[in-house]
Amino acid sequence: MEKEEVVKLLEKHGFTAVFESGVPMAVYEGGEKEMNDTYDRISKILKDSGYAGSFGVRGVAKNKPLSKPAYSQLRENNDGQLSFI
Questions:
Q1: Which residue has the higher pLDDT, 2 or 50?
Q2: Domain spans of the chain, in order of start
Q3: How far does the chain reach from its first CA to its final CA, in angstroms?
């Protein structure tokens, strides 16, 4: 699984996810303890899907707007494979 596909996977599981500086990132709005639980849940989802690359979980920053979603930068071909447009 490619890093860009991780964003879609996380969104399918109900997370807000973006692709920032080459890293799939889940954006979380709760407290620190819940963020640790969220990290563990995301880690399990990604491990179960066979993804072994980097990812992150960050809180919402007032001065850091969400990046353009990775899937809006990707195109899916007839075989279901994703590529940058």
A1: 50
A2: 3-84
A3: 18
- Per DSSP, helices labelled H in 1-85 are 3-12, 32-48
How far is residue 39's CA from residue 45's CA, in Å, rounded to a whole number? 10
CA 11 to chain centre: 7
Q: What is the pLDDT of residues 14-62, one digit of tens each?
A: 998 988 888 999 988 877 777 888 899 999 999 999 999 999 888 876 6
Q: Distance between CA 8 and CA 30 in Å, rounded?
A: 21
31: Cα separation from own chain's centroid = 19
Predicted TM-score (pTM) of this structure: 0.67
- Contact of 26 with 10, CB cutoff 8 Å: yes
Amino acid occupying residue 80: G
Tokens, residue 4: 């860009």
